[in-house]
Amino acid sequence: MSIDAGLRLAVGTFTRITSGEVSTSPAAARSALLLAPLAVVPLAALAGIVGAAVEIGLPPLVAAGLVLGLLAHGSRGMHLDGLADTVDGLGAGWDRERALAVMRSGDVGPMGVVALVVVLLVQAASVAHLLAHGWRGALVVAALVVGSRATCARMCTTGTTAAPGSSLGRVFVGTVTPAASWLLLAAVALVVVLAALPLAASTSDLPTVVAGAALAVLVASQLAAVLRERAARTFGGVGGDVLGAGVEVALTASLVVMTVAS
């Protein structure tokens, strides 16, 4: 596994940080998917720092809006764009050619707009709730951002087919073994649980918060897998837009679970 080539590809794909010349070989693609959570650590850290500004009086909802704006900027809005395009394509009907054409049109339809509004509203409310706990909540938010990127490895396991005509899907889809994707999931679950410990220690129900942190990663991964299967039936495979949608679905789901747990 080429760690250097994979990390450069992951940074260039999942963030707006310049990563130089990249390789799109299967080995590099596999490494990139497994290293995606690591590649977004700088972005997640910045989001955590912005969120921790609640400690100096910034209202949690304002801080949440700034955090989401930073995440969108740091990822070039790629995941949000993928969410809108995927929802529009899924809602275009059962004809595969029409669904693919709608998804790739570049225009955002009414279903895509509603999806963006709902997802961003839920994310903002959840992040604001967590940030009401101060820096402890900001640490959890940062960890969930890192964890949400592990979703792509789960969506690109061997046996999964790339969507017809998808250049990004052709590079990534089918390159990760299921065992590797589950090991990555376990690793990010551990990171989220550790990040939630200060928050758990400050509450009166430590087991609930810790269990919620582990459950947040599992629920996010499972929902992304459901999205993958739906996309495979509708589009004939998984493409870049579906991967982006998977990240947003995973982040939203994990934030909601942690909101309930805290």
TrEMBL record:
GO terms for biological process: cobalamin biosynthetic process. Keywords: Cell membrane, Cobalamin biosynthesis, Magnesium, Membrane, Transferase, Transmembrane, Transmembrane helix. It is found in: Cell membrane. The keyword Magnesium applies. Pathway: Cofactor biosynthesis; adenosylcobalamin biosynthesis; adenosylcobalamin from cob(II)yrinate a,c-diamide: step 7/7. The keyword Repeat does not apply. It catalyses: alpha-ribazole + adenosylcob(III)inamide-GDP = adenosylcob(III)alamin + GMP + H(+); alpha-ribazole 5'-phosphate + adenosylcob(III)inamide-GDP = adenosylcob(III)alamin 5'-phosphate + GMP + H(+). One of its GO terms (molecular function) is adenosylcobinamide-GDP ribazoletransferase activity. It is a multi-pass membrane protein. The chain crosses the membrane at residues 32-50, 113-132, 168-197, 209-227. Its EC number is 2.7.8.26. It comes from the Bacteria. Its cofactor is Mg(2+). One of its GO terms (cellular component) is plasma membrane. HAMAP family: CobS. Belongs to the CobS family. Joins adenosylcobinamide-GDP and alpha-ribazole to generate adenosylcobalamin (Ado-cobalamin). Also synthesizes adenosylcobalamin 5'-phosphate from adenosylcobinamide-GDP and alpha-ribazole 5'-phosphate. This is Adenosylcobinamide-GDP ribazoletransferase.
